[in-house]
Amino acid sequence: MAVPSELRQISDAVWELPVSWKQGMRVPARFYGTQELIERFDDGVFAQAANVATLPGIRRYSYCMPDGHWGYGFPIGGVAAFDPDEGVISPGGIGFDINCGMRLVATGLTYEEVKPHIQRLVDRLFERIPSGVGSTGFVKLTEDEFLAVAEQGARWCLRNGYALPEDLERTEEQGCMEGADAETVSHKAVQRGHSQIGTLGSGNHYLEVQVARQENIFHPEIAEAFGITLPDQIVVMYHCGSRGFGHQIATDYLHILLDVMERVYGIRIIDKELACAPFLSPEGQNYFSAMKCAVNMSFANRQVILHRVREVFSDVFGRSPDDLGIRQIYDVTHNTAKLEDHLVDGRVQRVLIHRKGSTRAFGPGMEGIPEAYMPWGQPVIIGGSMETGSYLLAGTKDGEQTFYSTAHGSGRVMSRHSARKKYQGRKLIRDMLAHGIYVRTASMRGLAEEAGGAYKDIDAVVRATELAGISTRVARFVPVGNIKG
Amino acid sequence: MPYTYLEDIAIADIAFEARADTREALFVEAGDALMNVMVEDLSAIRPAVRRGFRVEAGDLERLLFDFLQLFIFFKDAEQLLLRVSAVAIAEERQGLVLTAEAAGEKIDPHRHELNADVKAVTLHRFRVGHEAGVWKATVVLDI
Question: Is A241 left (phi over 0), alpha (psi -120 to 50) or beta?
């Protein structure tokens, strides 16, 4: 589909579709991206962002970030805020992989120090952090213990020796969303998830060893404040979520809400994947609670993986994690709904913000970010494709325009099927090695589907967020090692 | 092949269309189509363990949806790769009732060439229909 002719340019990287574009739109839809990125948006993005604009209680705009692409219900990269009293909550605005997110960890090592050991390091990470179809983790829990994880998130990890207090301080929501009641979660979800803590999963989930080269530091002062202090410093970045637990919760509530949406609440929707219920309804509140359980499980998952990263580095380099300077920079969520206070219509109001494939990006001085980062804004971790690079950004004051939301990755442009036809896993591994990236994978075909050419240009996506003013570049990282589910 | 993967429906995910002469055969094909997304060679799955499937639903689409979710459930909960060879669908007072015996084995990465993990069945363009004597299902899987 071509870009709709009604799409109006608001500024260099902001575009708007008016409410007249589709029947039922309550607010306009806003798209973030340069002209080049907007022209490459796939068919579903405009239609889906407009569908979101029809939902009851939506405030200001239905947004789509520069890495946006077709999703279920909401586009990936979709952001929408709802009035908690009059609006809805929708699993389709959060996604199946609830709190799929990114964690960035600094080390006190340089590339020169790591280079001779990179293959052993990546091999060991691959052995110790399970990935791929049906993988299970090393933390063996009973179902009751797992329910405690769902309610306590990373706090459970702290109590059980898998976390340092500073890890939680540097995690969005301090690693636990309050109000998660495990009673709202099905037994099926528990059965699917309880053996998966400490696993990466597959698809676009990965762990990378990366280098922050001097020429890729865009804002030295913020980089230093966030912990990027050495030339050619090694960092570890990873992307994973709530695994089968979150997927089952999303599936369960999709049906629960579909059943009551029109029959009980009289809400009609354009697309079944936009199933929703009034936020304050019993079904809406139960889903919000169950979603928080998945958010917390995912925080615990990434925390346990950090524990393993510390063990592996310590083992390979024969020094303690503390001595190696392994320190979490930040952990961000992508797929969530959260109650936040924002300025709407000239006054501060509480809104329910759905971010689906979008990162919260609080600006300097905002409550909810670590004390040490207050002057600079919240760290935002943007994962690129495995062949290109990734970014550390910071939230800005101007982020207010998107309820302090920005991009989350580079965004796919090629189908998995096409990528598989175009790329071959084994050749990709050889080519990447020739470019200084050592890869281990649980699936050669899965690897081919994640080739760099299947994704948008990460540099263009990040530049667009900066141009629009919703986040600012701090550092770019290039991969030297990758484990892929 | 009685199922084909569709290129134009899902960019980040995988869609398939299954076809068969009967509803029951359609379900068998759809189950294999889902499993084949995760495992390259379905013949590598040995029928070492068995699980009984029973699904009740008000309509055929919901019956297929819940049936497919079972394969994902057993993959995560018991690390089992399963196939069904025969499905029975009965119309009873409470609606449609499906019964099937699934057979398979624990995931063994050394013998099973694994592809992408399936997170969920989605309702996007989900459809089961009967056209010109052929049963057809279109399904988009979240990866």
Answer: beta
Alpha helices in A195-281 (DSSP H): 220-226, 243-261
Under a CB-based contact definition with an 8 Å cutoff, are residues A66 and A13 in contact?
A: yes
Delineate the domains of chain A, giving CATH numbers in brackets.
8-95+339-358 (no CATH), 101-338+366-484 (3.90.1860.10)
% of chain A with per-residue pLDDT over 90: 90
Alpha-carbon distance B13 to nearest alpha carbon in chain A (angstroms): 7
User: Token pair for residue A239?
Assistant: 């992307």
CA distances for A17 relative to A40, A61, A67, A469, B29, angstroms: 16, 10, 18, 20, 42
Q: Which of A269, A408, A410, A416 to mutate to test the interface with B (most CBs of B within 10 A)?
A: A416
Interface mutation vs chain A, best among B117, B125, B138, most A CBs within 10 Å: B117
Grade residue A1 by pLDDT with cuts at 50, 70 and 90: low
Distance, in Å, from the CA atom of A308 to the CA atom of A98, rounded to the nearest integer, reads 22
Continuous H helices in A23-103: 35-39, 43-52
Question: Rounded mean pLDDT of A12-29?
Answer: 97
And the tokens for A26? 């309550």
| B4 close to A (CB below 8 A) | no
Fold assignment, B14-142: Archease, Possible Chaperone; Chain: A; domain 1 (3.55.10)
pLDDT tens profile A459-468: 999 999 999 9
- The torsion angle over the Cα atoms of residues B34, B40, B42 and B48, rounded to 10 degrees, is -100
Domain positions in chain B: 14-142
Tokens 């009609």, residue located: A268
The amino acid sitting at A266 is: G
Q: In the numeric block, which tokens belong to residue B42?
A: 């379905």
Angle at A78 between CA A72 and CA A83, to 5 degrees: 105
**Whole-complex ipTM:** 0.94
The 3-state secondary structure of A355-388, one letter per residue: EECCEECCCCCCCCCCHHHCCCCCEEEEECCCCC
The catalytic position among A247, A408, A417, A435 is A408
Give me A371's structure tokens: 């004390």
* Stretch B49-72: mean pLDDT: 97
| A408 labelled catalytic | yes
